[in-house]
Amino acid sequence: MPFNPLEFVQELLKIPSISADANYAGEVARCARVFSEKIASLGFETELVKTSLHPIIWAERNSKTPAKIRILCYGHYDVQPIDPIEKWNKPPFEPAVENGRLWGRGSADNKGPFMCLFGGLMRFLEKNPEAPVDIALMIEGEEEISSPSMPEFIKSRKEKLSSYDAILLSDTSSASDSQIVITTGLRGVLAFDVKFRGPNSDIHSGMFGGAVLNPIQAMAEVCASLHKDGLVDIDGFYDEVLPIYDWEKRDIARYPFNEEKIMESLGVNSLIKQGDLKPSEALRLLPALEFTGIGGGYQGEGNKSVIPSEAFCKISIRLVPDQNGRKIYELVKKAIIERCPKGVVAEVSEPDGIGDAYCVIPPNREGAPNPYPEKLGKIFGAVEDCVKQNFGNPPIFLREGASIPLLSLLKKETGLDSVMTGLFSPLDNLHAPNESFSLTMMERALNYYEALFERISK
Q1: Taking every annotated instance into account, which residue ranges of this chain make up the domain Peptidase M20 dimerisation (predicted)?
Q2: Looking at CB atoms within 10 Å, which of 155, 217, 280, 454 has the fewest?
Q3: Are 292 and 321 in contact (CB under 8 A)?
Q4: CA 105/CA 78 separation, integer angstroms
Q5: CATH architecture designation of domain 188-241+287-355
């Protein structure tokens, strides 16, 4: 009986595989087990790899004849938490098919899109069981918590992973189910905390106000100094940013980015202009420094007349290709400490890991390697044709502002590049209540991946 991807993804969506919450560890493990058992039943040699957190599914299906190409498919089966639960119109783990969409937590990130890849592959293999292509599946359960177990897994299997020709995945976005984006780059990320310490305890604001510098004031001054005219105001911050190519600006212009509608949907009255780039360009091509948390002093009801002994902020930096995360961290740390006014001391924590940015430039474009890797070029050529054939329009090639740090690690350790076909869209409510996935997108993507495997196997 042919594999039914819509039926099976609904089975997976019933499992609350929330990796961030230890209370769901058993459910994450159950999801991995159900997934791996299904893959094994379809003819793959499957292994459920234990980690200190959540299992990794590894599966292989090798050709009986010398393979013309070897493909590694990546995805993740873990999902985001469901808070706030009261905002959901339907129970998040009771999948439903309504109004042309599949509803449920994980439907768009990443169980639905990966099922398109896997389902298209199975359609191809059912029709071409002797196809000269080797396939591996690497499906993790920790992507939503920054993949802490993957570095060890990758390094322990470096030789095996390096034997493949490229990675295929669908964990990025597109404009719609008729305008597909092939993601060519992802920003890296690093995050850290800063504490601003003043007096050795909270003190009376009447007795000492105006004489002792308030750590909240010091923090506000430092934080405000880190940006100017929309850009990060730290010497050297932009020195190693990847050049912005004309073909990228042309493809960005093809993407439907309506500033007025975006401002309306976000409830803001303007977007920040960064240098001479439009917001639609800067979001994809420039690094960013953001404050993701801030606090200090009395937080309860009413007022309390104290100067707090300390304040804190949380900083997240999105890196772009060619930037060195450690170097950027040291530049920002130095600026914070030097700009902290006398009377308060700034303490900058180490980052919670540094995920580098990733970039792969398609063939025949400025910045692409020359000579271009033959099999990677073959895949990109097939992708262009198959997207147009199955979605109705040529793809747009764009860098994306989000991050999948795992891909830069895979590139560093194995040399493998990733071909990323975006399948979720702005309508899908990723990481939010009422997540859903377009059934039109799903069927087109299944056909697309079937056609893609057909093309690259020849």
Answers
A1: 184-343
A2: 155
A3: no
A4: 10
A5: 2-Layer Sandwich (3.30)
Is 136 within 8 Å of 52 (Cβ atoms)?
A: no
Domain ranges of the chain: 5-186+358-456, 188-241+287-355
Residues in the chain: 458
Burial of 156: CB neighbours in 10 Å, binned 0-12, 13-18, 19+: exposed
Q: Is the dihedral of CA 399, 400, 405, 406 positive or negative?
A: negative
* pLDDT number for residue 1: 82
Tally Cβ neighbours within 10 Å of residue 339. 16
Res. 223: pLDDT tops 90: yes
Cα 330 to Cα 66: distance, rounded to the nearest angstrom: 49
pLDDT at residue number 176: 96
pLDDT tens per residue, range 34-84:
999 999 999 999 999 999 999 999 999 999 999 999 999 999 999 999 999
Label residue 343 exposed, middle or buried (CB < 10 Å: 0-12, 13-18, 19+). Answer: middle
The whole-angstrom separation of Cα 86 and Cα 67 is 51
Mean pLDDT to the nearest integer, 113-140:
98
Do the beta carbons of residue 280 and residue 400 sit within 8 Å?
no
Q: Does domain 5-186+358-456 have CATH number 3.40.50.300?
A: no
Burial status of residue 414 (CB atoms within 10 A of its CB: 0-12, 13-18, 19 or more): buried
- Say which DSSP state 107 is in: T
